[in-house]
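=== RUN LOG ===
request id: a7f3
mode: sequence -> structure
chains: 1
length: 156
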Amino acid sequence: MMAIEQGDALPDLELAGADGAVLRLRDKVGAPFVLYFYPKDDTTGCTREAQDFSALLPDFRAAGVELLGVSPDTPAKHAKFAAKYDLTVPLASDEAHVVMEAFGVWVEKSMYGRTYMGVERATFLFAADGTLAQAWRKVRVAGHAEQVLAAARALG
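=== RESULT ===
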């Protein structure tokens, strides 16, 4: 399956929200939308990224942009993660990796000579019409949320 590319439409896929409710990605069409993928709740980089997006959530919303963070963790784990760090950015679960595969972020990784499947940290910015405006792959956390906010504001 080909990963989503610039100009492609937001796929009609579902995720489980931190409260267990079903979230349809296509329901996000109509306003700019940021979807970011991260490997695991309550790890150093993932926590920092969620804190950065949470800190900027009012700025994203003021610009009319919604955010959603996705990992393979369970909705219950997301709820604990959000409560532990006072996160305000919405989180969703993709335990079966369906959405991650569609976005090309469920990839083979290697650490200490061992290969395994995992999440490549990536962020996708969709325009109000539901087309992919910009993608960041192999994201480095420092300063990333600010970059995404600037790009979202530039959509106008």
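=== NOTES ===
The two ends are 32 Å apart (CA to CA).
The longest helix spans residues 44-62.
=== END ===
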